[in-house]
Amino acid sequence: MSPAHIKFRGTRLTPVERPIFFVGMPRSGTTLMFEAFAAHPDLAWFSQYFNRLSRFPSVSVLSRIADLHPKLRRRVERSDQSRRLSNRLRVGPSEAALAWERYSGARFHTDFLLDAEASADERDRLHATVSKILLYHGKPRFAAKVTGPARIGYLTSVFPDARFVHIIRDARAVVQSLMRAPFWKDTWRLREPAWCGGLRDDELATWERLDRSPVALAALEWRAVIRTARQEASRLATGRYREVRYEDFLSDPHSVLGQLFSFCDLREAVAAHALLDREFELRDMNRQWRDRVSGPEVDLFDELIGELLGELGYERAPSHSP
Question: 214 lies in a domain?
């Protein structure tokens, strides 16, 4: 019996067909793009209320409120804005780290999970939970955002027909943003890898040679997230994996959104495009890294990730070395 039709505690579950996972390095635009995508009327998602009360999937019935009127849906706020209480109370999609930890274990958010599959218990729990989310939210498809390592192998072991949308942003902008992000700056992530099992021995040796530079570490992790996602996708998700540059979304958001709907076998959605126009302030912040990065750091980026940047279509900055 396939995971899509598994029985859980004697109850036949609603099939979970072609779930969609947005993946990518933190500070790559994943939140903005996923929020717009998740406004599709056929999609259920984990809400901030389910994240706090993950023992009770029935709380997802509150997510139906977001469909009643645009003002009842949580607005997307920029990371540099203060969070208003009135907005925090409105329902909206959440990455739901606490919920993933409950159903997949702590390693889901601490490890690359390369060559790892979900245990039978984890598969049952995850499938049963998403099935209930679909039921209580009243939607036919499920979508989620998972930042950091893509974990394609693990997620495919639970949902064999899952789609993966990998959001990629210029690493120099990502690293500069991470150095200022509250969840990254002044934390242990500056002194050791944020996730286990992703950096190769030669990459760790390079980091040591560079005096364990936090900037170098973040750049190497950006490269590892992209490298491992591509490796997993080529082995396990052929035809079910799509890369999207955040900069392309900023340049033509409606076109990219429509392409993603098509890739995920979803109909066009006026509501999602309307939300994009009404709620989103799209600004290309990549220019800031050029103002903030010193000459030596430019050379550091070029040494560590210059080749991959060029492969992805990003301009390599001229060297500042004498």
Answer: no
